[in-house]
Each structure stands twice: as structure tokens, then as C-alpha cells.
Amino acid sequence: MVDVAVVGCGYTKFDEHWNRSLRDLSTEAGMLAIKDASIDGKDIQALYVGNMSAGRFIGQEHLGALAADQAGLIPIPATRCEAACASGALAFRKAYMGIKSGEYDMVMAAGSEKMTDVKGTDAVATLMGAGDQEWESAIGLTFVGLYALMARRHMIQYGTTREQLAMVSVNNHRNALHNERAQFRYEITVDKVLKSPLIADPLRMLDCSPITDGAAAVVLVSDKLAGRFQNPVWILGSGQASDTVALHDRQSLTEAMATRVAAKKAYEQSGLTPQTVDIAEVHDCFSINEIMSIEDLGFCRKGEGGKFVEAGKIGRDGEKPVNTTGGLKAIGHPIGATGIRQVCDITRQVRGDYGKLQVHGVKTGLASNIGGTGATSIVHILGSERPGR
Amino acid sequence: MVHNSSVPLYWRLRKSKYNLIGTRCKTCSTAYYPARHLCQKCRRKGEIEEFKFSGQGKILSYTIIRSAPAGFERYTPYAVAIIELAEGATISGQVTGKIEDIKIDQPVIPVFRKIYEDGSGGLIHYGIKWEIADGQRA
After folding, report:
1. Please, which of A14, A20, A186, A197 could form a disulfide with A332 given CB 3.0 to 4.6 Å?
2. Which of B60, B83, B125 sits opposite A153 (nearest CB)?
3. pTM to 2 decimal places
4. Nearest residue on chain A to B85, alpha-carbon basis
5. What's the rounded Cα separation, in Å, for the pair A250 and A32?
6. Quick check: B38 contacting A, CB < 8 Å?
7. What ipTM was assigned to the predicted interfaces of this complex?
């Protein structure tokens, strides 16, 4: 069986890039990954691009070919992957499978989103394309509204407190302080979160990841080529699962079944467990989703995510450091880029060359990227040791 | 612009949007609202028929939307809930009346209301909202 490693990664500054286009950002991210890997772009055999909604954000489709074109990589095959907010992880998984299948030995997976060319209310409506257009968007639901419905239920069912939700954002902001590519690099307090404007009760402005422009890219190679690289970071497990697109059709409002299924597969393949994996990147599009993800990934029991956060266990020096570089909340959430950005951060932490962002002694890390309200969930586990060795 | 302002799209859904009509599988009795035309449990062995829901429901969770998507800006703040119908299906819907009256597990009934308008000259979208059942108000 072919083993696959990440040998290069990079992401642009995540920000409101008024003066930069999707093309500029994607090309920059690709070049960062190529430089990091010290390869020649012409060695890349295929390209996968994660993007949610360039068609609505900038009126541009056909992003696969566009990325290959802009990167000077034509005529290699280039494919756009879309699974709402999990588009990035989907592109990564497709690149991984392309190598795993024996078809390619070196592939680039990238992700991008340019969200600020439209006004805020249009961006909010576009994001609702990740939900059910006929039955959720049609009655005026928003994404923060959907997560608020989960948050309310989680609070009622498990006693999760408003303060615990706020602590998620506080931790993410603190972790982003040294991340130069983060959109927000300042500390916030629980009090500040609780005094920020209500967006959809019980969620407030500072529970929400922002609207962001940005791109990220990684280079993946087969074991045949991995020996040429100094610090290959191996993909130890990859799981993907689906659930109903509409939140109201779920068995439970407080559990992402697809995350549990995807994580189980990734854990089984890697031989790791929620207890033995060192760090995690989770999908904190809204604070409640970080709490639910911590539970669904098995770091604590269902319903105890709030207490886990309150006890400081997700801190950079905690029992299970989560979102060590700022998460979606503080780094920003350019939808299609996020899944690849998570892999970049895990890769650097596992390589151990992350400077001020480095968490000590990381050998393995998990990346959990969620589409919509949990209709797509993709989990990857990466580590410093080649699988099965 | 709200994408689901498409007239044909709304026309196709008018029956279920106006009358709480979904479907039910004759084989296993599972009721679906919104309508599904393939039973999730029986798949090919299922037999789907049209089914009108009683309208009895209760609130599983709710939120107050204060920052609306394009098309709904003028209605804020408005309440949205997930309603569990007596026959088993769950659906998202706006809740009318006073926001302070809304509580988890509260019984609600469907009412026919305007949902939104596509600007001054566009289609007016009607549909079902939910009202707190009589005798249940605080």
C-alpha cells in the first residue's frame, strides 16, 4: 500500500484583502507550499482546489483550471472540490487518494475563498447555500442561527454555560497572538464576549468566525518520493462521512454523527485514539461547534465539552491543545481555505519548526473540518512516523 | 438577492409550504416533512404516499435572528425554532408572537403567514409560521 506524506505547506495572511483577488491569494499560497517543499512546480502532477462558492462570491467558476493556469502548471489535471466549509479537507483527501491509488506521486492540494467582494448580508445568504435552501434559507435562517439552535439545545440538555462558550473564543484569540497570518491578533476576555452584540441568541458576535479572504496550499508525495524530503509528515488516517443537509432532519441537535463516523475511521487507520493524539485543529466556525467537536472527536464524553474547556484542557499547555494557532475564530475562515490551513498548522507543529507558535513535543495531530451544520465531516490524522513502521 | 425567490421553485413547493403536506411510507409508517419521495428506512421496498400532518408540534430549540440574510433584513429580530411534529418529523420554522413567550418544549400550532417579499415588485412568499398554542402563553 502506498503511504502519503505532506512535504510542503503554506498559507497567506487571512484578512479582508480589499486589494487582492482570489487569483493573487491562491497563487501566493501555492508558491509558499512549493518553496517550503523546495520542489520545482513542474514536478506536481495534479492539483485539487477546495472552494465553496466563488460562483456567488466573485462570479467565477471553473477554479481547477484557473488555479493551474495562474500557477503556470497547465496542462496538469486540476479539479475543484466542494463540500461547503469542508471543501479544503475534501481537496486534501482527494489529493491523498490520488497518490494512494498509484496514479500520482506528487500532488498539490489548495483551498481558497474570496468573501469580501460582496456585502455582508449577501455573504451571509451565500453561506446558507451550505444548508437547505428550500427549508432553512427560505424561512430566514442564517448559519449562526443554525448553530444557535444547537447551542441552545446543548445548554438545556447538558448545562453548558454561556461563559464556557465564551472561553472557546478567548482561547482561540490567545493562541493567535503570535500567528502573523491571523486576522485578529489580540486577546479578548469572557466579559468582552458576553458584552458583544447578540447575532442569534444565545450566540454573540465574538462567538462567530469572521468573513475572510485567504488561501492555503500543501504538497503531498508518495513514499517513493518522501525520502528526498527532510521532514515528511505522514497521513496516518483519513475519514469522511455525511449527514442530512438540514439540521432539523438530524437524530440529535447536539451531536455531529458524521464527525463521529469520520473520526472513528481515521483513528482506526492511524492506530491512535482520542487520548493518544497530541493536538487537534477543530472547526470552531462558532464557539458551540468547538465544544461539540471536542466531544464528537472523543476528547471527552458527550455533554462535557464545556467543562473540558473551562478546566483549561484545550490551552496550548493543556491536556489536549486545540487550535494552537488561533482557530477559525481568530485566524479567520476563508471557507475553502480552512481545511487546508488546518493541515498546514498540524504539519508545522508535527515538524517541530513552528517558532513562537510551536507546542512542545508534538508527534501527531488531528484536523477536523466540518461542512454546513455537520452534513460533511472530514477528519485527518497526521504524524511524524511512517504508518505501520 | 435571495436565491430561493425563483417562482418555479416556490410553485413546486406550494402544496407543502402552504398546507403542511408531506409524505409517509406505507410500509413502515415513517412520516416525512419536508416530503421525501424515497423512504430512508425501506428504500426500494417503501411505498410513499401524500400525507397531511395534524399541525401539533412542540419547540425543540429556538433562536432569535438579529442579523438577517439578504431579503430578511427588515424583519429582525425574528424567532426561528426547530419544531417536532406529533407524527415524528422535525422542521425549521419562524415563531410568531412575543419573543419572550417562547420556551423549549412548548406546544405550537401552524398559522398561514407572509414569510418575506422579494423587494417592492417581486413575489410575496407565504407559508407556515408557528404560534404558541392557546393556553400556553406565559
Report:
1. A14
2. B60
3. 0.97
4. A248
5. 40
6. no
7. 0.96
